[in-house]
């Protein structure tokens, strides 16, 4: 079990079952980089974007750790465009880097990862598992989906109707796992709750504005008593627009839930009488940091788990949102939660 910690500043040692190829994180003291050295190495770091808090934190965690270990960094930013993100990996082939850290992205990235592997350049991933990746760092997405489903199910008293924003279930593996965990838990444990069909598809770019308009339309279609919760399956940015629409419409009967729980959405949850009731907070900076640690371990000849799960935190209601916000250090990096 790889023991890792909060916000990229705590971890421990690996004792995972080798047969599983997976590890799960807890909160300890360091990231396990003692004695690692990337001096003389050039590491490419590719991220799908830096506009979203999650992406930016994972990117910064990877870049800072490579630099800490003495390596040189070449970076690319896909600007929240998966095709651009995929094509950016060509730059690392041209530059003949020693290793690549790839962060997020859909299947369009995979052919480029194969090219890198075929060229003898090892790839280490954040939330992008695959046969051409040496090791992947992620949260346990299916369990996270289950956790948020339980919060929503209990908050609704086991009865009601839920609308889903679920654009990426089929294109992103972690989104599929989050959707699976959520849907299966609702179906198994809360048979009195149904999911409205068809599901909604949020946009990857300008997600809050898009989700706000779609939610306004949805609330016109479903009057009071016909919809009880709107859940954003895979991330939290659309939920900002969902909350805006619910509040603008005066629909105090409709709750909102999501996944990722960055500081902005935790602040929304913490507001008095917020409709935003459930979320799952991750540790994106730590995930990026641990991907860079894996690079260091690779060049040190140390064993690496194929998949490492970093601890996430289910968030249930305003008081829990305040607690998690502080626990993850956002009070120091993003200001007080009540202001």
TrEMBL record:
Q: What is this protein called?
A: ABC transporter substrate-binding protein
Q: Where is this region: Disordered?
A: 1-24
Would the keyword Heme turn up in this protein's UniProt record?
Answer: no
What residue ranges are annotated as transmembrane? Answer: none
The main location class comes to other
User: Where does the Periplasmic binding protein domain start and stop, copy by copy?
Assistant: 43-302
Instruction: State where the protein is found.
Output: Cell envelope
Keyword list (alphabetical) reads:
Signal
GO cellular component entries: cell envelope
InterPro entries, alphabetized: Peripla_BP_I, SBP_2_dom
Q: Which family does it belong to?
A: Belongs to the bacterial solute-binding protein 2 family.
Sequence ranges of Polar residues compositional bias: 7-22
Annotated GO MF terms: carbohydrate binding
Origin species: Bifidobacterium jacchi
> Can you tell me which residues the record assigns to a coiled coil?
none
């Amino acid at each position: 079990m790889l023991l890792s910690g909060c916000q990229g500043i705590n971890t421990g040692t690996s004792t995972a079952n080798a047969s599983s190829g997976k590890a799960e994180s807890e909160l300890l003291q360091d990231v396990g980089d003692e004695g690692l050295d990337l001096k003389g190495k050039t590491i490419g770091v590719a991220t799908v974007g830096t506009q979203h808090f999650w992406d930016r934190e994972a990117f910064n965690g990877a870049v800072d750790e490579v630099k800490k270990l003495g390596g040189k960094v070449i970076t690319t930013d896909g600007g929240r465009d998966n095709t651009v993100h995929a094509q950016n990996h060509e730059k690392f082939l041209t530059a003949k880097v020693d290793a690549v850290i790839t962060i997020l992205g859909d299947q369009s990235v995979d052919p480029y990862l194969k090219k890198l592997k075929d060229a003898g350049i090892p790839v280490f991933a954040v939330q992008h598992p695959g046969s051409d990746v040496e090791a992947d760092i992620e949260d346990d997405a299916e369990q996270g989906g289950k956790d948020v489903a339980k919060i929503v199910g209990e908050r609704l008293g086991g009865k009601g109707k839920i609308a889903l924003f679920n654009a990426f279930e089929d294109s992103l593996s972690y989104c599929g796992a989050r959707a699976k965990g959520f849907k299966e838990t609702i179906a198994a444990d809360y048979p009195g709750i149904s999911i409205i069909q068809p599901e909604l598809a949020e946009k990857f770019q300008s997600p809050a504005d898009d989700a706000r308009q779609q939610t306004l339309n949805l609330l016109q279609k479903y009057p009071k008593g016909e919809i009880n919760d709107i859940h954003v399956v895979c991330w939290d940015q659309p939920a900002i627009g969902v909350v805006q629409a619910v509040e603008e419409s005066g629909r105090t009967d409709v709750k909102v839930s999501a996944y990722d729980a960055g500081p902005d959405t935790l602040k929304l949850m913490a507001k008095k009488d917020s409709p935003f009731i459930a979320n799952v907070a991750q540790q994106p900076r730590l995930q990026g940091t641990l991907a860079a640690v894996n690079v260091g371990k690779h060049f040190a000849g140390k064993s690496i788990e194929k998949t490492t799960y970093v601890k996430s935190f289910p968030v249930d209601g305003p008081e829990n949102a305040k607690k998690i916000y502080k626990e993850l250090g956002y009070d120091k990096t993003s200001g007080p939660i009540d202001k």
